[in-house]
Design goal:
The chain is α/β, with parallel strands linked by helices and 530 residues long. Among the domains are: 156 residues, Rossmann fold (3-Layer(aba) Sandwich), CATH 3.40.50; 67 residues, Roll (Luciferase, domain 3), CATH 2.30.38; 96 residues, ANL, C-terminal domain (GMP Synthetase, Chain A, domain 3), CATH 3.30.300.30. It has 15 helices and 24 strands. It has a nine-stranded mixed β-sheet with strand order 2-1-10-9-11-12-13-14-15. The longest helix is centred in the N-terminal third of the chain and has 17 residues. The chain is globular and about 70 Å long.
Length: 530
């Protein structure tokens, strides 16, 4: 006996069909690198994606071919998300901030056939073109005036074509991890996993999307599938406001002009926005929801946004999780909590949305209690969690589907996740763990501190002790003693860094995360005394 419901495969093309049919006139705004602004809508995105499908067919692109993009956020990039899969291809978004050797490795490992790119990245194309062995065609989204590009390439086509029919478990998108050690690894998403992820992202406990949403995605479209926003946005017809330039003034101007209600980005985005606010006295307009992920948001950042009336969705995920794992949302007793207690809750990384399971284990793989105190290795499983890396010989998860995230975390009784560190970054002092993440987030709350990074330094007695690297805010003269005094009642006494060093800048990965490997090299010869 089987059920008697219709069997329609989950394809991401269904998302753009729905957006065009039910939300066709909902705007998509793009601010380009040259300062120009263009407007289209969901019906226009679908029409251009169908033309792109025909244009790709004319190039000989077929099912399973990898189609690369090297671009920032704008409507033509969004068109490519749907046009690439429309021909049965696999969209491969490449991070232009990677080192050349990584860019060469990624494109060659993926065996990309076509490359779409922004004019701003023409130097990368010119520099690496001869090293990319599989790319046959290069198409610029925004070419110099008088030069043919993306619009001219799709113009001869009428869009009278059907989307390629795919099995729902066929691949649709390829993203590579940012990788601080070794070569980046490819994560290949399915139509089914991507559709489920998009639908789950709509709920109030996640992105909180509906047809009234005006979303300014500051997270780049090349970073972890842009957190799934281009797919989820189509599912309910949100108005997207894109900017190819991530300068605070430009972003703020767009927020005010377009009455942005939602935004999503890494913590450093908000540090820049706060500096702009402090200089100009402007507010955040209609903004009511800010999803922050990529790295842990400092308490001071969360507190400032909440005081401005903005709900903070503190999120956790990774490329291997498509990427949503958890998102912070108000608990059932939210209205009964004090403001400080609400901030305490939001500082954690939220709870799993439906479809995701979490657990923590010790080094012997024993299951740990969800008691809010015990830390262990964080494992995850679900329908949009990686099974195997692209071109790998073995599964990335165990026989029960559990994937080891590489994070160290605590789970609370209500399922709330609290990331304490990356397993490779935790500071082990005298047999006990010190969270580098917590040290950094406390330090950033000190007036005059722009950014902080904590690493473990060899200690002859305690094995490791914390060193805190600090970038001062512009014109700040904050001292070591002032930072320690600020941190004194906010961390355990034995967590206090043995050394605080001021640096001009802190190294970051291509996705904005602190590059601890480079920082450890920088302080490799640093000596602490017993």
């Amino acid at each position: 006996m089987t059920g008697e419901m219709q069997r329609q495969p989950m394809q991401v093309s269904n998302l753009i069909d729905h957006a065009a049919r039910e939300h066709g006139n909902r705007e998509i705004v793009s601010y380009w690198a040259n300062g120009q602004e263009t407007r289209t809508h969901w019906a226009g995105i679908r029409a251009d994606a169908l033309k792109m499908t025909q244009a790709l067919q004319a190039l000989g692109v077929s099912k399973g071919d990898r189609i690369a993009t090297l671009a920032m956020n704008h409507s033509r990039h969004l068109v490519s998300w749907y046009g690439a899969v429309g021909v049965g291809g696999i969209l491969h978004t490449i991070n232009p901030r990677l080192f050349d050797e990584q860019l060469v490795y990624i494109a060659n490992h993926a065996e990309d056939k076509v490359m779409f790119y922004d004019a701003a990245f023409q130097p990368i194309i010119d520099r690496l073109k001869d090293q990319w062995t599989s790319i046959e065609h290069y198409i610029c989204y925004d070419p110099p005036e008088g030069t043919d590009g993306f619009e001219e390439w799709i113009a001869p086509h009428d869009g009278n074509v059907e989307w390629a029919q795919c099995d729902e478990q066929d691949p649709c998108m390829l993203c590579y991890t940012s990788g601080t050690t070794g070569n980046p690894k490819g994560v290949i998403y399915e139509h089914r996993s991507t559709t489920l992820h998009a639908i789950s992202g709509l709920q109030p406990a996640a992105f909180d999307f509906d047809a009234q949403t005006v979303m300014l995605p500051i997270v780049p479209m090349f970073h972890a599938a842009s957190w799934g926003l281009p797919w989820a946005g189509a599912a309910c017809g949100v108005k997207f406001v894109y900017s190819a330039v991530n300068e605070p003034k430009i972003l703020h101007d767009l927020m005010m002009k377009e009455k942005v209600t939602h935004s999503a980005g890494v913590p450093t985005v908000w540090l820049g926005m706060f500096q702009y606010q402090d200089q100009t006295g402007v507010d955040l307009g209609a903004l009511r929801m800010a999803t922050i992920g990529g790295s842990a948001a400092p308490r001071s950042m969360i507190e400032r946004l909440m005081k401005a009336g903005v709900r903070v969705g503190h999120a956790w995920g990774m490329t291997e999780t498509s990427p949503i794992g958890t998102v912070g949302s108000p608990s059932s007793d939210w209205d009964d909590l004090s403001f400080d207690a609400q901030v305490d809750q939001v500082c954690k990384q939220g709870r799993p949305i439906f479809g995701v399971e979490l657990c923590t284990v010790d080094d012997d793989d024993n299951l740990l209690p969800r008691d809010g105190e015990t830390s262990g290795r964080l494992l995850i499983r679900g329908p949009w969690i990686i099974k195997r890396y692209f071109k790998a010989d073995a599964d990335a998860c165990d026989e029960n589907g559990w994937f080891d995230t590489g994070d160290v975390a605590t789970l609370h009784p209500d399922g709330t996740l609290q990331i304490t560190d990356r397993s490779k970054d935790v500071i082990k002092s005298g047999g006990e763990w010190i969270s580098s993440v917590e040290l950094e987030n406390v330090a950033v709350g000190c007036p005059g501190v722009a950014e902080a990074a904590a690493i473990g330094i060899y200690h002859p007695k305690w094995d490791e002790r914390p060193l805190l690297a600090i970038v001062r805010s512009p014109d700040s003269t904050v001292s070591v003693d002032e930072i320690k005094a600020y941190m004194n009642d906010k961390i355990a006494k034995w967590w206090m860094p043995d050394a605080i060093e001021f640096v001009d800048e802190i190294p970051h990965t291509a996705t904005g995360k602190i590059l601890k490997t480079q920082l450890r090299k920088q302080f490799a010869d640093y000596k602490l005394t017993a």
